[in-house]
Amino acid sequence: MWLHRVLRDKEVTVLGIESTAHTIGVGIARNRPPYILANQYKRYTPVMGGIHPREASRFIAENAPSVISAALKEAGITMNDIDAIAVALGPGLGPCLRVGATVARALSAYYEKPLVPVNHAIAHIEIGNLLSGFEDPLVIYVSGGNTSIIAYKDGRYRVFGETLDIALGNLRDVFAREAGLAPPYISQGEHVVDLCALRSREKKLLELPYIVKGQDVSYSGLLTAALNALKQGAKLEDVCYSLVEISFSMILEVAERGLAHTRKKQVLLTGGVSASSILDKKTKLMAEARGASFYNVPRKYAGDNGAMIAWAGVLAYLNNIVMEPSEAVINQRWRPDEVEVPWRSQNGRSN
Amino acid sequence: MEKPKWPFELKPLSWGAESNLYLTDYLGIKAVLKHRFPKKYMDPRLTRRLIKTRTIREASLLIEARMAGVHVPLPLYIDSENGILVVKYVEGRLLRDVIDEEPDSVGALACTMGEMVKRLHNTDIIHGDLTTSNFIRSKHQGYIYLLDFGLAFKSRRPEDKATDIRVLERAVVSTHPMLREVIMEKFIECYTQGLRDLDSIMARYRKLSLMGRYVAERRKSLGAQQG
């Protein structure tokens, strides 16, 4: 597998910083087993309403120092043992990204460590590859801010399909909030919309919009229709059931098309929404029907975390992808297909 | 894989994500049977509902396209409950192959494609999957046919029409990289003649292409920094 190439390289240890949304995560990774040396994070949970970028960024700024110390402690090393600082420069919320970038630039300049720019989506994929041992999967990346079907081709991760408006996690969170189910959004490890759907006894399937356009999905019409159905007196559990069934079927249908088109034989499910057991079950069924193997990234590495930034940082750093701190500017809409991933190609540099 | 309920002989043609294609004989006419099958990962009622509406939509869009003057395989039989759509078989060669074998006729072929898509768009039909493999030159009359309306839908939005063209351009770039400019230039020339909402569609189309270029330029400068 391609991983053996990083083992041939000189040993490097990278500290990675994640702050694209509600999480300040700091991870430490090395190109030697066990690969992930530390994964510390603190998550901002609003008391009411959704994520306010300003509040989240303040939370990140206040907690970054302690999370960095905790990560170094967990790995049992000091800053001297770190070879490079990796940071997620996007995509994400501007104010939150800026805090992480500032911290990373400061660490890089002060300790004189190279700075490695990391694309948040690619970090999700790479840690999934590391944990699953998959060579070349079709990736279903579903979170609060992202919903994409991604596959590697010719030096890049190509976006095969994506949401045309809101992300799947956003659909679920906003519905939960408007319907009075949240916060908290998660109960006993499951999203409240899933729990609500499971409570539906009749499992009535309402006529809500199912919008797949070619390889893309659209969720905003579904959200509006679901909230309207509630207002018009439909049973909450039935609306939840219909919303969950329709939204998951939409993304899986697009994923299935991607699988047929790209002829990949592995399916990797990642992002915050991958924690849903309903989605896990459905994705497995889809992959099985196509004769593909399936891996769902464990929760602590599927949600936003620093370990994935550190690991993607290791891969990038080994390929000499570094930046001057003064050039490390955030990019709120940084698409994964804009990034070259030389470590995936057969003739990728391995020093 | 679930077999369709069909009394005549079936020869498998291809397995897709959404449907399987079979070659068959319908009342003495050589035909293609498209079978949409239920998805195990969906609620059975949902997958049935989708199969039904999509089968009906595909058949009616094929008829509408033919009425707009575009050659398409004509529907012969439809059983929406069981996801069956039977269309007349078009014998011929895919434009994908014709283009590579007859470089001299590339311009004429691209122009015909442009005229066909213009007719569709003037009727607000978006094909959704334009590639040179979905155009076929019939063996008998030499007409160009457009196949597979499985992803087609109705929309009058210039954005959807521009996206349709971008989908084709993306396919051309990957299938005929050397002929991209010849094909797209001639295609656009014939597509835009008599096109309704010409300005807004083309403005949107240029914006879509520009976005790609912007990305590439920025990447170049990023690459230089990273050495």
Detailed description of the structure:
The complex is a heterodimer of chains A (351) and B (227). Chain A has eleven helices and 14 strands. In chain A, strands 3-2-1-4-5 form a five-stranded mixed β-sheet, with helices on both faces. Chain A has 351 residues and is an alpha/beta fold. The two termini of chain A are 18 Å apart. Chain A folds into two domains: 3-126 and 302-344, Nucleotidyltransferase, domain 5; 136-299, ATPase, nucleotide binding domain (Nucleotidyltransferase, domain 5, 2-Layer Sandwich). In chain A, 42% of the residues lie in helices and 20% in strands. Chain B is an alpha+beta fold. Chain B has two domains: 10-88, 2-Layer Sandwich (Phosphorylase Kinase, domain 1), CATH 3.30.200.20; 92-216, Transferase(Phosphotransferase), domain 1 (Orthogonal Bundle). Chain B has helices at 44-67, 95-101, 106-122, 158-175, 180-192, 198-226; strands at 10-15, 19-26, 29-36, 75-79, 84-88, 92-94, 125-126, 135-138, 144-146, 153-154. In chain B, the strands form three sheets. In chain B, strands 1-2-3-5-4 form a five-stranded antiparallel β-sheet, with helices on one face. Chain B is globular. Residues 212-227 of chain B have low confidence and may be disordered. Chain A binds chain B through residues 203, 205, 210, 213-214, 245-246, 248-249, 252-253, 256-257, 259-261, 282-283, 285-286, 289, 320-324, 327, 335, 338, 340, and chain B through 15-18, 39-43, 45-47, 50, 128-129, 151, 153, 160, 167, 215, 218-219, 223, 225-227.
Number of β-strand runs of chain B: 10
Largest sheet of chain B: 5 strands, antiparallel
Uncertain segments of chain B: 212-227
Low-confidence spans of chain A: 347-351
Sheet with most strands: strand arrangement of chain A: 3-2-1-4-5
Order of helices and strands of chain B: EEEHEEEHHEEEEHHH
Head-to-tail CA distance between termini of chain B: 51 Å
The CATH H-level homologous superfamily of the largest domain in chain A: ATPase, nucleotide binding domain
**What are the secondary-structure elements of chain A, in order, as H or E?**
HEEEHEHEHEEEHEEHEEHHEHEHH
Number of domains of chain B: 2
Rg of chain B (CA only) = 19 Å
Which strand order spans the largest sheet of chain B, edge to edge or round the barrel? 1-2-3-5-4
Instruction: Report the top-level CATH class of the largest domain in chain B.
Output: Mainly Alpha
Shape of chain B: globular
Q: Using DSSP, what is the number of strands of chain A?
A: 14
Helix count of chain A equals: 11
Q: What is the architecture of the largest domain in chain B at the second tier of CATH?
A: Orthogonal Bundle
Q: How many structural domains can be distinguished in the coordinates of chain A?
A: 2
**Approximately how much helix is present in the residues of chain A?**
40-55%
Major sheet of chain A, described briefly?
5 strands, mixed
